[in-house]
Amino acid sequence: MSLTKRTWYATSRAGQRVKRFAFGFTLQVGSKQIRKSDASWTKEDAENAEAEYRLGVGLDEPTEPPAKTFGTVAGQYLDVKRGKPSWTDQKRTLERLLRAFGRDSLVSTLTAERIAQYQAKRRTEKSARRRDEDGIALRVSAATVNRELALLRHLLALAEEWGYIKKVPRIRLEKEPEGRLRFLSEPEISRLLAACQTSTHPDLASIVTVALNTGMRKGEVLGLTWDRVDFSRAVLLLEKTKSGRRREVPMNEDVDAVLSNRLGPPQGRVFISRGFRTAFDKAVEVAKLEDFRFHDLRHTAASYLVMRMGTLSEAQALLGHSDIKMTMRFAHLSPEHLRKAVARLNGLAPAPTTAPASAQDLAASAQNQHKAGTIDRVSRVTT
Description:
Layout: E1 3-11, E2 17-29, E3 32-38, H1 43-56, H2 70-81, H3 87-101, H4 112-124, E4 126-131, E5 137-139, H5 142-161, H6 186-197, H7 204-214, H8 218-222, E6 229-230, E7 235-238, E8 247-250, H9 253-260, H10 276-286, H11 295-307, H12 312-319, H13 324-327, H14 335-343, H15 359-382
Antiparallel strand pairs: 1-2, 2-3, 4-5, 6-7, 7-8
């Protein structure tokens, strides 16, 4: 970049000496040096003017991005995301996108039109897991479609950063209904734990117990290693969280009992993750839980914390929410939350010391005042 800044002094109309300057650029075109400046230009204006001039004389011919297939860029994306708690779920979602758009398609061919067509088609498809009361498969939810589109948008943003596409196509997300909040009743918790106890998966009951007592995400529970379990301080140290920030989760007596009673050397991962998803889905079916998924254990932990007089700030800290707005969805479960709020208004409008007059009393009082006023006026006239 060959920017220039020319400075000089001039006399204003008021006769004062003022400092003036002009941004510009110098450019060597063959044996000729080009100089341009303008007192009205800012530094950014000069940069833009130089770029336009270079294009105009052919010094900076626009180049096409290198041809990269969607499959290649998807592999690079997964490498960037490797180690994140949601990596497995993102890999599964990405496989769906690769089947839809074609693994060998150039990433530059993923236009806004093609993405909109995929979005419309996806909303008409039946979900493999969502069913109504009669067991009929429901359509894929807006939230599911949005998670897929958000992943695709992030992948394309990285592709632009890597120079594989010129610009990220515009992606419009679906309008979602108010956030889903499903949590278990106490009888449902008992049925689920009983079903987990009969499962062939050796760790299923322990995994569900830890999730219910800590509010940890599935990836956080399954990814927990023994070196992150601190029995001396009774905390679980979470390094890889969704927010990217380290978090400590206290252990209560139930969690401590689960981890203390486990057999085997304390090394590697605490729980066996292989076959977990199938085992959990089977336990949910045996327990006859409707519209329930593992993430709802997190909702259940937060809901009972709030209902048992825990504060929203405590729930926020336990769940690791970066924004209290995410925790406010549990506020309606706390009767104390609003009770304390309205208590702050005490004394604003004190109650009257006497009972309020009835409508008949007020009408009679008004009539008496009218008669008294009439008598008073007649008295003044006759006098």
